[in-house]
Amino acid sequence: MPAIVLIGAQWGDEGKGKVTDLLGERVDYVVRYSGGNNAGHTVITPDGQKYALHLMPSGALSPNAMIVIGNGVVVDPKVLLEEIDGLAERGVDVSRLRISGDAHLIMPHHRALDRVVERYLGSSRIGTTGRGIGPAYGDKVARMGIRLQDLLDPGILRKKLELALREKNQVLFKVYNRKAIDVDETVEEYLRYAERLRPYIAETRVMLWDALDRGETVLLEGAQATMLDMDHGTYPFVTSSNPTAGGACVGAGIPPTAITKVIAVSKAYTTRVGSGPFPTELFDDNGQHLRKIGHEYGTTTGRERRTGWFDAVVARYACRLNGVTDLVITKLDVLTGMPKVPICVGYEINGERFDDMPMTQTDFHHATPIYEELDGWWEDITKARTEDELPENARRYIARIEELCGTKVSIVGVGPGREENVIRHPLLP
Predict the structure, then answer these.
(1) Is 352 annotated as a binding residue?
(2) Which of 21, 41, 110, 114 is flagged as catalytic?
(3) Is 355 assigned a catalytic role?
(4) Could you give the CA distance from residue 394 to residue 400 in angstroms, rounded to a whole number?
(5) Which NCBIfam families does the entry link to (predicted)?
């Protein structure tokens, strides 16, 4: 059976958690492979229960699937334990969780540096969540990181922390005039986390290889999205990892030959949080309408999301980059009642038309969207479960997205609930 990758096709917040939850009962493993608690998934169960997940894979709400946090994730143990406890209090079985011993830890100095550097940048700030994700990945690349497996060896934990703080405390104190991090307090705090996390830490690569050998299905769940990818997104306004399909192999230890399906999720319009270029961004009443009706506020931060029309240039780029086999379009219902629903089909930059992503950051920043306007619809679509039950103009809108992206649209979300979908093509047999 296959390994399936689920990714975001825009700047995040597309509704990946809903799709993971939709597939959760039909897969054996759900694996989070990148990011940290700077991301979030909101899942609404059939009984109306709402869950905001940050580090835990969305498959946690499936009664059967094993849930795995892969080596590519950076883990704040305090946040993870709070999330575990919160789910357990609501009756969710968290004993199925396994965490890669090679996943890196977010430490107090990472959070401190993230916040102070972002403030120091002022108007040039990137728009991070201040949760230490970037500095943790920076230390990972610099080979100064501390991993979950280090929690199991107090001597190694102290030695690595002392080495890291030898530099970080100098920066915090002498450059930013902030209090230095105490080694003893930090070791004591993290060893308390170690006792609780010990049962969950495992060699997850072998676990997943064995599952695939047994013919079981592994769903690899990305956080953030394509346009926030460190290498392929709108750098430097990106996350610090690779949430694209290729990152799934690195962040979970899955061989690329095991992946047989890549599902990309996109809203029927576009949003992003934080700074950075956004060609179709709306600053008028339409933008406010999308934000209000779509409840566009961050799961993790509560920040207002920037809103804009659907960008087919971005979506097509994501489909080609990730090798997408199936598109899921969410929140089509938010567009109900709009007389016209424009789609960006290209960019104009310095008088020249671009149908693909421009090469340079400067060109993308100055891109003016070229729109194709489609007629809207007024009918309530939240009860639609088949394509024939959608209004004709809504069907035309989805068909045009499919044509522009060159990828089949398999599911259309018509509401926030797990069952509020139009199934055009089954994602699993």
Answers:
(1) no
(2) 41
(3) no
(4) 10
(5) PRK01117.1 (NF002223), purA (TIGR00184)
